[in-house]
Structure formats: C-alpha cells, structure tokens
Amino acid sequence: MTGKRKSRLFLVALLCAAVVSVGLFAPAAVRAKHPVEPPGSANAFLDRFIGHWIGEGTAGGTPISDDLVCSRVLDLTFLFMRDEALDGFKADTYLGYRVEEGRYELYTFNNNTALGSSLPVRLMTGHRDGDTLVMEEKHGRGALRYTFEFLDDDTFRLTKAFLTGHGDPFVTEIFRRQ
Questions:
Q1: Could you tell me the pTM of the whole model?
Q2: Taking the CA of residue 21 as centre, how many other CA atoms within 13 Å lie in the half-sphere pointing to its CB?
Q3: Which is nearest to 128 in space by CA: 104, 99, 152, 145?
Q4: Which residues pair with residue 127 across a beta bridge?
Q5: pLDDT one-digit tens code per residue, 60-71
Q6: Buried b / exposed e along 22-40 (16+ C-beta atoms within 10 A)
Q7: Same domain? 108 vs 157
Q8: Integer distance in angstroms from the first to the last C-alpha of the chain?
Q9: Are residues 98 and 73 in the same domain?
Q10: Strand ranges for the chain from DSSP E
Q11: Model confidence over 149-164: pLDDT tens digits?
C-alpha cells in the first residue's frame, strides 16, 4: 500500500468510528428504557378507566369541570375517552398499548386552539409505573406531558404540563367515578 492509500483508509476508519460513537452515545440511545409490560397487564390498567367520570380542577388557575366517558372501541383495541367540559372544551382521545414497542400510545383530538395550533391533535407515547401512566409528546416547542394517576379504584388525577421550561402543571383535575 502506498502512503496516500494508507492515509485514506485511516481517515475512512476514523470517520466510521466517529459516526458509530455518536450513534452509540446519542441522548436518545442512552435513555433508560422502561420495562416491557405484558399486554394483559397493560389492558387491565386501561380497563380501569371504563365508565363515567366527573372531573373538577383548574386550568391556568381557572376552575374547570369535565364530564368524561370511557369505553373500549375498535374490537377492544383502544380505550376511547370522550371529554366534554362545561366551558365548551371537547376532546376525543384514543389510548392503547402497542405490544411490539412495549409502550402506551395516546392520540387526542380537541377543539382547543389556545396552545397555538389551528388543528389541535396530539400524539404521545408513554409508560406505566404502578398506578401512574405518564404520556409525553416528542420533545419540541410546546410539547406536553399528561400524567394519569389512580388515587383509588374510583378516583384518578390528571395533570397536563409542558415538558420543558414551565414547571408546575397548567391543568390539574381530579376525576371521580359516577
């Protein structure tokens, strides 16, 4: 091999090593993975939401009240949550467990354009730890975190917060089974 060719091979090897090391140590690659939950357990957790709920709490310091009805739809694949508030807020949310990824997925559609979108649709993924389900959007401007926490069999707390930069939740609501 000539010196020029050795030098090119060395540069190619160095470049490959750099690309591999960046891939191995990228923040997304080193995040702790949550344990995969058996589908039966995940679906049993989701079934706890089935029924009629009344929520009372605050959104941005203003009192809110919601009527929430949850049921299984689409051959029991999704938990469907229909939320209607006294102030006119409405949301249809689909929540399920994707076995292949070992994670929960939430798709919500609502009529609230106050957070900057003319088409308020959100996609979140998440995990469960005991009685708490944490759902997050991909990091980015305005990304949100929803936390559902069962306080007992007939009561759960829902909080909504920005992922970064805003601290406390802007929505906190306690739902009671009817």
A1: 0.79
A2: 6
A3: 104
A4: 134
A5: 999 999 999 999
A6: eeeeeeeeeeeeeeebeee
A7: yes
A8: 81
A9: yes
A10: 51-59, 62-73, 78-85, 90-98, 103-110, 121-129, 132-136, 144-152, 155-162, 171-177
A11: 999 999 999 999 999 8
Which amino acid appears at position 174 of this protein?
A: I
Low-confidence residues in the chain, pLDDT < 50: 9-31
Distance CA(77)–CA(147), nearest Å, equals 21
Residue 44 one-letter amino acid = A
Taking Cα atoms as reference points, which of 54, 13, 31, 152 lies closest to residue 103? 31
**Cα 55–Cα 49–Cα 58 angle in degrees, nearest 5:** 20
Give the burial string for 125-144 (b: 16+ CB within 10 Å, else e).
ebbbeeeebbbbbeeeeeeb
Q: Any idea which residue has 């957790």 for tokens?
A: 45
Enclosing domain of residue 10 = 1-31
Domains in the chain: how many in total?
Answer: 2
Shared domain for 81 and 9, answered yes or no, is no
Side chain identity at 27, as an amino acid letter? P
50 within 8 A of 71, measured Cβ to Cβ: yes
Same domain, 6 and 79: no
